[in-house]
Amino acid sequence: MTHNDEPRQGHWPVAFRPFSLTSYAAPLGFLPGPCARVLIDGGLMVADGAALSMPCDGDLTERLEKARLLLLDAGLIGPRRGEMMPVRPSFDADPIAIIDRSAMRILGLWATKVHVNGLVNTGSDTPPDVWLSLRAAHSTAFPGYFDTLVAGGQPHDLDAATTAVKEAWEEAGIDATLMENARHIGDEPVCYVSRQGFHQELLSVYDLVLPRDWSPTCIDGEVESNTLVSMDELRSGLAGALDIKFGSHLVCQDVVTRHGT
Hints:
This is Thiamine pyrophosphokinase. One of its GO terms (molecular function) is kinase activity. This protein is an alpha+beta fold and 261 residues long. The chain has 2 domains: 9-104, 2-Layer Sandwich (Transcription Regulator spoIIAA), CATH 3.30.750.160; 111-259, Nucleoside Triphosphate Pyrophosphohydrolase (Alpha-Beta Complex). It is 27% helix and 31% strand. It contains 7 helices and 13 strands. The strands form 3 sheets. Strands 7, 8, 9, 10, 11, 12 and 13 form a 7-stranded mixed β-sheet that branches. Strands 2-1-4-3 form a 4-stranded mixed β-sheet. A two-stranded antiparallel sheet has the order 5-6. β3 (46-48) and β4 (51-54) form a beta hairpin. The longest helix has 14 residues, at 60-73. The radius of gyration is 19 Å and the shape is elongated. It starts with a helix and ends with a helix.
C-alpha cells in the first residue's frame, strides 16, 4: 500500500497462507489465517503440515462457490455481487473455473484489471494533462480514492480489450468509436496487500488521447466525479497530495515516466 492508505484503512500485520490445488504445484491463492481456518473446518481445504491444499476432484467452480458461502456465513465477505470472474493458476494461464467477485480478493486469486489513461494534449513540447476518476462513496473498495479515468476488472466472458471498451462506456461515457483510438501499452503482473486481502493482479494498460473539449460522464454510478490534472499535479498526487488506489497509483507512475518529460 502507499503510505497514504495506512491511516485511512488501519495498518495491521496480516499473515497469509498460500494454498494450491492438488493438481498444481504453484499456489492458486493466498488466504488470511481466519479464512483458512473456516475453510479447513468446512472440509474445503486440507492442511498437511505447513501445506494447504484444495482438492480439485469434481467441479472446481462448485467447490469455490461452497467456499464463498462458508466465508459469507462467517461474516468474512459481503454478499454475492453477481459478477463472475475467471480463476487462473497464473496470470498468463487459461481460466480453470469461475467465481463470484465477492470472494475473489479474500482468496487471493489472480485478477486482470484494465486501466485506461485519459490523456489530453497540451502542446507539442509539454506533457499531456491526465483525467482521474474519484471513486463513489458507496464503492465496496476504497471509496473516495482516485483511480485512472477507467479502471475495472475483467469478467470471465470478456477479453481485456473488450472489457476496456465496456468499462470506458460505463465509467466515463466513452463510446466504442472513440475507444478505437486507444493504444495498448502493456500488461504488468503485480502483487500487493490491502484490507481486502492479498492481491494478485495483471494490470492491462491503455492510453487514450481525448479531445480538449471532451469531459467524462459516468453511466454506472461508480464514479463520483472526474478531475483533469496537469503532469505536475499528478506528480504531487502520487507523492501524497491525493489518495490514489494502489493499482492506479502504479499505472499513474508509469504515465509520469512515459509522458512526464
